[in-house]
Design a protein that fits this description.
Layout (H helix, E strand, L loop, with lengths): L6 E6 L6 H15 L3 E6 L5 H8 L2 E4 L7 H15 L3 E4 L2 H13 L5 E6 L9 H9 L3 E4 L2 H9 L8 E3 L16 H7 L6 E6 L8 H14 L3 E6 L5 H11 L5 E5 L4 H6 L3 E4 L9 H8 L4 E4 L15 E3 L4 H13 L1 H18 L2 H25 L1
Parallel strand pairs: 1-2, 1-4, 2-3, 4-5, 5-6, 6-7, 8-9, 8-11, 9-10, 11-12, 12-13
Helix pairs in contact: 1-2, 3-4, 8-9, 8-12
Length: about 375
């Protein structure tokens, strides 16, 4: 445990609001509960700002654009000095450059941590080596797959990289009876099976393939409805695609929802058809915590938690027929669906709870702070 209450600065140059930003807020909330001071640095209009306001975090808003590089570095140096920051935790590419350089040249010399959320391959060039190996004192990944790639493919030193998957708040996500009232509100009949994908509407989340799989399933069986909950740049495209496939009456688009636990309580099967970039997805973890059977793909770190026919069903990415087969397997095998859902919840209890994540992050912060403190004393 950390004995000193730390001042932790999170930087995020991404302006979106999805799993990465949600992880930042979730972790920061728990650290604040433990008495640590949290500051969020973000760009104007960023999706993380309203969430930071709701949590009562201190925040600094300024541009983090390439053309403002020097000004951005100076701004972060001022923030580090103003708050006497102990640890800078960076989250996206550009803020990692700005904040890491600011931290390295600041006279207050905070410890620098780089969190890698996505499983997208990291370039093997010298710039990547600088921003992952030489600038940060520690790198956190949100899954073992991401860590293994950084160590084995990029050849970054393994002793500086730790995997800490996102944890699930089990006071929010827990098994409960099927929510018939919400199903009725959504227009789902009692004798229908509801299959839901809850994710940002980005290309690599694979919603196109889900709609194509839905077309296959709707063509050969009755009593199924599909729910797509989430917002993003492909919202209009996906609605148009559902119409072109002739399945609009069987697909419910909910847009962005912050009541994910309620949506999960009203469905029968959770699906995440991603084909790239995934760490350990919160959407899957949340469904597992609520004992919902999960069908997903082998993309990124997903197989760390979805073990085929043990904690869920895995399908081939970008393959609607494979996805349809996986969903149908769950629909036709009630015992299998119940077994994998129960196994999945036990996995959450043992390794992916919010408590587990927070303890590992505290260990990481303690490690990086002690290392940095030792360097300063020896210097």
């Amino acid at each position: 445990m950390i004995k000193k209450k730390l001042t932790i600065l999170h930087t995020e140059s991404s302006t979106g609001w999805a799993g990465q930003e949600m992880r930042i807020i979730l972790e920061a909330r728990e650290m604040k509960k433990r008495g640590h001071r949290i500051i969020i640095a973000a760009q104007p209009g960023s999706g993380i700002i309203p969430a930071a306001d709701r949590e009562g975090f201190e925040k600094k808003i300024f541009n983090m654009r390439k053309k403002d590089f020097i000004i951005s570095v100076i701004s972060l140096m001022k923030i580090i000095a103003e708050y006497r920051v102990d640890i800078v935790n960076t989250h996206s590419s550009w803020d990692s450059w700005i904040a890491s350089i600011a931290g390295r040249i600041s006279r207050f010399r905070p410890a620098i941590l780089r969190t890698r959320h996505l499983s997208t391959p990291v370039n093997t060039g010298i710039l990547s080596r600088i921003v992952y190996q030489y600038l940060p004192h520690l790198v956190i990944t949100t899954g073992d797959f991401i860590r293994d790639r950084l160590v084995n493919f990029n050849r970054f030193p393994g002793e500086k990289i730790i995997s800490v998957p996102t944890g699930v708040d089990q006071e929010v996500f827990y098994p409960r009876p099927l929510n018939h009232d919400l199903r009725k509100t959504l227009g789902i009949a009692d004798d229908e099976k509801a299959i839901a994908a809850i994710a940002a509407l980005r290309s690599w989340k694979g919603h196109d393939h889900l709609l194509e799989a839905a077309k296959l399933l709707i063509g050969r069986r009755r009593g199924i409805r599909f729910i797509i909950a989430g917002d993003g740049p492909r919202y209009d495209h996906l609605k148009e695609k559902a119409a072109s496939l002739g399945i609009s009456d069987k697909v419910i688009f909910l847009g962005y929802r912050d009541d994910v636990n309620d949506i999960l309580s009203a469905i029968d099967i959770a699906v995440l058809p991603s084909y790239a970039n995934e760490g350990v997805p919160q959407a899957i973890l949340q469904a597992m915590a609520m004992e919902k059977p999960v069908v997903s793909t082998t993309a990124g770190s997903i197989p760390e938690i979805v073990r085929d026919r043990e904690t869920g069903v895995l399908t081939e990415p970008k393959n609607p027929a494979s996805l349809a087969e996986g969903i149908e397997l769950m629909l036709d095998n009630e015992d299998l669906a119940k077994t994998v859902a129960l196994n999945a919840r036990k996995l959450i209890d043992s390794k992916y709870s919010l408590k587990h994540m927070v303890l590992k992050m505290e260990e990481a912060y303690n490690l990086i702070f002690q290392r940095k403190h030792g360097e300063m004393n020896n210097g």
